[in-house]
Amino acid sequence: MIITSCGNSEQLAKTIARKLKAKYSPLTLSQFPDGDIYLKFNTSLKGKKLVIVQSFQPHSDQSLFDIIFAAETAKDLGAKKVILVAPYLAYMRQDKRFHSGEAISSKIMAKLLNNSIDKLITIDPHIHRYKSLKDIFTISAKNLTANLIIADYVKKHFHNVAIIGPDWESYQWAEVIAKHVNAEVSVFKKTRFSSRNVKEEMLKKIDLKGKNVVIVDDIISTGHTIIEAVKKAKKMGAASVSAIGVHGLFVENALSKLKKAGLTKIITTNCIEGTTAKIDVSSLIVEELKR
Ligand code: R5P
């Protein structure tokens, strides 16, 4: 087995290789003067299983392109199987045509991957209107969850906790984590007016007074969802409010906006590498690759 990465997730790729005692072989990826992609493998792939570890952030479009070029080249060079480990799978939020004429990006992304790779492993993809990854992937597609390692982190680093999911879809993280932490949980109702304008409302009332509230969500992108949930939790008397995201995209200066909103801690997994990535998902991926 050979492990590589297209630039994102390099640390994670190296950790996975070390844990599997497999070779990590970096790709040469650059551009020709006109901007065309230049890609080169630096090890023999003949008869090998290639694992590309590459989250789709930063630069989701470039990542998709790099992955397709890497997978196609690997097959051309004789690799017997190409597995993509994309801890963060982009494009999943555009899972329907919200306005006429729009691209259903998730389907297009899946079609391209179906064509070029043999297996996909991802972590907590944003599955909302699809029932499962099978709705868009024809290849084997494994959906892992970071729920239990997040719950362990909460148990270790927080006390007197209440768990909040900032929208209906987040029940799949909030409820499981709360159960393992043995904490009360409520899921907010989110009304999204635009990408940057959301309103939060608590449906199932729980008492947040004096609690260390931990908001859990799959994606933190512009941060607006979390910021509105923080306001609500503070109004309800929370002693502190922290946020844990599986995928910390932090676009448009989100991290500094979140800090200004008065969050005590902002933590993510290393599905996307960065300063907040304190929860390591490598063991989940290693277990799946050993199967
Ligand atoms: C959406 O339903 C997701 O679960 C997240 O809540 C959302 O993507 C967060 O986006 P933002 O940080 O831009 O509010």
Explained architecture:
There is one protein chain. The chain is globular. It is an alpha/beta fold. Strand 5 (49-53), helix 2 and strand 6 (81-86) form a beta-alpha-beta unit. The longest helix has 17 residues, at 60-76. It is 31% helix and 28% strand. It contains eight helices and 15 strands. It has helices at residues 10-20, 60-76, 105-116, 147-157, 171-181, 224-235, 254-260, 282-290; strands spanning 2-4, 23-24, 28-31, 37-40, 49-53, 81-86, 119-123, 140-144, 161-165, 184-194, 197-202, 212-220, 240-248, 266-269, 277-279. The strands form three sheets. It has a seven-stranded mixed β-sheet, sandwiched between helices. Strands 2-1-5-6-7-8 form a six-stranded parallel β-sheet, with helices on both faces. Strands 3-4 form a two-stranded antiparallel ribbon. The two termini are 13 Å apart. Residues 166-167, 169-170, 217-225 line the site of ribose-5-phosphate.
